[in-house]
């Protein structure tokens, strides 16, 4: 289904210091890469509609033109012609696949969501979590008894890693969306069968020596930027808490890539130029992206209560991510995509070095303070969890591992 970003419900006074996760529906955030589009249609409204046209609305001729079946038939025909011309039977190879079980995503038009298992409906449909045409997908293992996909009901699915988006981790994708050489309902040549427990250890996808357990990150510069700019007027008409966090990470020197960076991308919201990718502006996207980095720890803090104030691992430049309305949600890492606000650690309490103080931006108005205790409400001058509608709130610490912390 097409992706939409749910709007959290906020009581108006609390917005004086509280940013929320999503860009309002009247502000369409144009990203340098298109949003993922699922294979099933959904009724959508507002400005998102034009960007989330369902693949099911495409004509049959268009689907045939872009289908992997047509591509595979074309590849087979080409291979047959080559065989007849040379007179030697060569081992079949994928049309444009790379060596080592790496294939390309094809025919999705606007991307396909990541799945948690070989089943169509087992997906959170989170913005940015999935694969786009041209992405390099490395197989771990596969099955031939997954949900059928495509006009020929291909039951083959692959457990994979997207080499172009490594922060997404391991997920499942249907064989229908890859340029694999295998017939439908069969595994690719040499692919392990997930049902037999043959899958490759996920760590082998990235050699240990290439995984950086720490990163060069200037905590002093990050915290200083947060304190110096906490009372700046935020960008208009957006929930700027995530952009504030991104600016702090940039000041600390966190490595930037195509998914998260603060460069100008020649797009606007409400007529105003905006710098940074979409991940730099949307709280759950940034939280999920950081969770996929090898030098970041995301630590669930559970429900807010007076007994979990101390966070000895929190350092300047780290992020605290809040879920204001936690009713019915588990508090583990599986709910990270529901975060609604980000604050940045800029120091600790003078009388308790284990109690972080945070800086932040809210929506439209200047934050009337430089920092606050991470559990403290500037609205009620009490606990955050005691505010109306926040009794079941919970949070995460997003900790950047820096060698200087050792």
Beta-strand share of residues: 15-25%
Based on helices, strands and strand pairing, what is the structural class?
Answer: alpha+beta
Ranges with pLDDT <50 over ≥5 residues?
1-35, 37-73, 75-99, 199-212
Order of helices and strands: HHHEEEEEEHHEEHEEEEEEEE
Termini separation (Å)? Answer: 45 Å
Strand order of the largest sheet: 9-16-10-11-12-13
Percent range of helical residues: 10-25%
In terms of quaternary structure, what is this?
single chain
Give average pLDDT, whole number.
75
Please give the number of β-strands.
Answer: 16
| Alpha-carbon Rg, integer | 23 Å
- The total number of structural domains is 2
Major sheet: 6 strands, antiparallel
Shape: elongated
Helical run tally: 6
Structural notes for this entry:
A hairpin with a 4-residue loop joins strand 14 and strand 15 (382-383). Helices cover 15% and strands 19% of the residues. The chain is elongated and about 65 Å long. 39% of the residues are buried. The two termini are 45 Å apart. The model is unreliable at 1-35, 37-73, 75-99 and 199-212 (pLDDT under 50). It contains six helices and 16 strands. The strands form five sheets. It has a six-stranded antiparallel beta sheet. Strands 1-4-5-6 form a four-stranded antiparallel beta sheet, with no helix packed on it. Strands 2-3 form a two-stranded antiparallel sheet. It folds into two domains: 57-210, no CATH class; 219-405, no CATH class. The chain has 406 residues and is α+β, with helices and mostly antiparallel strands.
């Amino acid at each position: 289904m097409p992706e939409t970003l749910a709007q959290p419900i906020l009581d108006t006074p609390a917005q004086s210091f509280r940013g929320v996760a999503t860009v309002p529906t009247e502000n369409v955030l144009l990203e340098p890469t298109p949003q993922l589009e699922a294979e099933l249609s959904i009724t959508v409204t507002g400005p998102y509609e034009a960007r989330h046209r369902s693949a099911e609305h495409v004509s049959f001729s268009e689907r045939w033109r872009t289908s992997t079946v047509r591509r595979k038939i074309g590849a087979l025909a080409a291979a047959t012609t080559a065989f007849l011309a040379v007179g030697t039977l060569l081992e079949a190879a994928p049309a444009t696949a790379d060596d080592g079980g790496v294939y390309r995503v094809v025919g999705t038009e606007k991307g396909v969501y990541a799945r948690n298992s070989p089943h169509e409906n087992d997906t959170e449909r989170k913005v940015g979590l999935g694969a786009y045409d041209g992405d390099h997908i490395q197989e771990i293992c596969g099955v031939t008894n997954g949900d059928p996909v495509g006009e020929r009901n291909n039951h083959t699915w692959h457990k994979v890693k997207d080499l172009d988006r490594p922060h997404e981790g391991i997920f499942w994708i249907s064989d229908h969306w890859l340029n694999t050489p295998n017939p439908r309902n069969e595994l690719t040549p040499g692919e392990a069968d997930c049902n037999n427990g043959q899958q490759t250890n996920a760590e082998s996808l990235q050699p240990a020596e290439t995984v950086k357990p720490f990163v060069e990150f200037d905590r002093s510069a990050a915290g200083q930027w947060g304190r110096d700019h906490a009372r700046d007027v935020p960008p208009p008409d957006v929930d700027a808490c995530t952009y504030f966090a991104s600016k702090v990470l940039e000041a600390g020197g966190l490595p930037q890539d195509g998914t998260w960076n603060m460069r100008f991308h020649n797009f606007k919201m409400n007529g105003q130029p905006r710098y940074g990718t979409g991940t730099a502006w949307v709280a759950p996207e940034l939280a999920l992206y950081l969770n996929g980095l090898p030098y970041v720890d995301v630590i669930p803090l559970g429900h807010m209560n007076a007994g979990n104030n101390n966070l000895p691992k929190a350092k300047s430049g780290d992020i605290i991510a809040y879920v204001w309305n936690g009713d019915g949600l588990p508090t583990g890492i599986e709910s990270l995509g529901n975060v609604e606000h980000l604050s940045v650690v800029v120091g600790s309490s003078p009388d308790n070095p284990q109690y972080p103080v945070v800086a932040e931006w809210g929506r439209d108005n200047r934050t009337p303070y430089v920092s606050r205790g991470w559990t403290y409400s500037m609205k009620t001058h009490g606990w955050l969890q005691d505010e109306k509608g926040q009794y079941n709130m919970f949070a995460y610490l997003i900790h950047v591992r820096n060698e200087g912390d050792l």
